[in-house]
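Title: Prediction job returns without error message
Component: structure pipeline
Severity: low
Priority: P3
Assignee: unassigned

Description:
Job completed but the reporter wants confirmation the result is attached to the right record. Sequence as submitted:
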Amino acid sequence: MNREIKSLPMVALRGMTIMPEMVVHFDVSREKSIAAIQEAMAGDQKIFLVAQRSIETDDPTQEDVYEVGTVGTIKQIMKLPKHIVRVLVSGETRGILKQLQQDTPYLRAEVEVIDESDLVIQDDLNGEAMARSLKDTFLDYAARNGKMSKEAVAEILEIKSLKKLVDEIAANTPFYYVDQQEILGKVDFWERYETLAFKLVNEVQIMDIKDELQQKVKERVDKHQKEYILREQLKLIREELGDDSTLSDAEEFEKAAKNLKAPKEVNEKLKKEISRFKSSLNSPAESGVIRTYIETLLEMPWDKAGKDNQDIKYAEEVLEADHYGLEQVKERILEFLAVRSL
């Protein structure tokens, strides 16, 4: 792996990381960035692209950008309205920012360019196993993500070189720019491989959890919708049969509430919930929740009370049988029961 110090025009990118092997468009509007691109075009078209640590920074210094960026070649520029320039670049190799040489009229940096063209990776069983494992994980990710074209995925899966495979997957996987920057920052190839593999597996697990949560929510919504549809069908059948004595659900709840012997605040709460239930019939999910609450209130034994068992010995046996430990808590409960029995 060869290293060479070069002086290059630099563009600080907001919310974006450009990787080696990546060909991408991006827009620039800052005067310094436009001037740096023009300077590169006047020379050999080489430019150093590095991400800002915070997208809020308007005039970045060396401390405001990451240490590792990408040296690329500008392929095309296009002037757009409102003083915006669209640039097409090809990322080529990693570069380490050594120092910022100037900040006006454009950013120029002293960059340690890392040439990995001579990097040799043994084509043994271990390398083959690493490549297959990475391809399997990438294929699983691509299938679940749904944002990558089948052609691009197929091309990547045909790559034989482990190094090129890692760089191509890192460049074509739509990670968040901070995650891409972490991969870009791994100058050591083996650390880069481990970081990429970990992030792919992590993304697959996140999507698994997301799918599981969405499935649970869907099942609950489907259940409420099914109940609502069946009740509406039953209501329609009764109307067709001329069963005028059959009350609607809301009317049945109102009738049950009138016959319920419960405290005044409970009856008032029931009236409010029944009123909410009437207005939520067009929303199966909401009406299902309110229905369950009303039915629970109606089924509570408000006017019934059991006879207290004042046997302290029996209470102690129940506590010991049902609860392990909690000695101070159980002692406090027994003291309370003893005082009440007096």
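Comment from assignee: result matches the submitted record. The chain has a mean pLDDT of 85.
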